[in-house]
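User: quick one, fold this
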Amino acid sequence: MKIFKILLTLALLCSFGAVYAKETPDEDYRLNYVNINWWKQYNDDNLVNLIMKTYQNNQDLKIATIKSKQADQAVKEAFANELPYIGFNGSIGREITGATTRFGDMLIPDYSQTRFLLPLTMTYEVDIWGENRLRTKSIEKQRDIIKQNERASYINLTGEVASNYFNLIKLDKLIKNQEKLVDLQKKITEMQNIKYNNGLCSTVEVLVERQALTVFEEELNDYKNKQDTIYNQLIVLLGDRNTKEIIRNNFDNLTLPDIPESITADAISQRPDLIKTEDYIKKIGYDVKVARRSFLPKFTIYGQAGFNAYNNLSHIFDSHTFLSNVGIMPSFDLFTGGAKLAHLRYNKLEYEKAEQLYEKVLLTSIQELNDSLTTAKLSKKNYAKSLERTEIEKEKFKLSEKKLNIGAKSNLEHLKAEEAVLLSERAEISNKINYLISTINLYKAVGGVDYNKIKAENEDI
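Assistant:
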């Protein structure tokens, strides 16, 4: 009967307390961080494949995920501290008395005996004030902050992969364009030399064309160097050392996504940095409550149930050897030298700091959103103007070709007109890629969500 009562008490104490803290799913949430549907709007399977390869292999993303999993385990550990402790602390000891022992008129002579003690020990701090539960909630909020760090890593790294991918395509096109410019300039220089040999131009004019050729060749070398650099950076971002080639789209096949004319400030609500500061305020709020409740008394339930036998181990499980005790131990700190009060004030100040940090992040987020949208709109306009300028140069080239056919223009002048077309196309190439990258920066500024959906939702409202 005694054993039954003890076991029932322990079972009730183990079931008393908090509800187990939830844990996030293992892998699916990471795909949501990648937001592959957003990247599909660029209509480039090569880009989507690179994003997925980064998701699967990038070491920084894996480290961020490991930190997130560690945070889950920290929450489990904190929750475990809310539950009773049950342990086994057995002992075997030899008792030897060195003198007679007297109990009143009764005299006990010297003796020695072996003691066998096999008890289960249980302790449980009754969370009357909810202090332990608040500690766990604080650690849960710390876990949520780490989750947002993980999400930010996915948004930033996938954005960086996409930007490098488009820059690589830009350099592919610029190199081809520059090679045409170099070939044209070589022809122009040769023609200028012929004119000089025939006495039709000065030495300065020849030197100017030769100088232009060296400039074009130097720019071509720079483009090739940048191409190699970005290629190597992209290999590292992909996280796969066995990658030998990065398959990419043709510049002329790139799709330009649309951007809204305006985005409301509510769009920043999904930014990881803003959510992190909100969670941090809540975490410090829990810490302040814990610091306040540390002034209150604590009550610990303790108990022990087991067997206690002397000399003969074979009788240890007999009914008369059963040992049990249970009790409540109150505790209250009378003097701590002001440590608890200082800790409370520290957390209050930390809460004030967290509020100021939130205001700063809020303002910075709005600024980054506005700056990104302004840059995207400007890039779109510049791209349109560069297209217009290229079309003008092409029309001039057509007129030059007509003049060449009727003998109203020289071959040298016609080559100069063709060179002007290539120079205008160079600006068009850069502006097109700048516009694409500006859409990625805008995507990052709204926290890795589709800003077109944000626009649609606002219009519905």
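User: anything notable?
Assistant: The radius of gyration is 38 Å.
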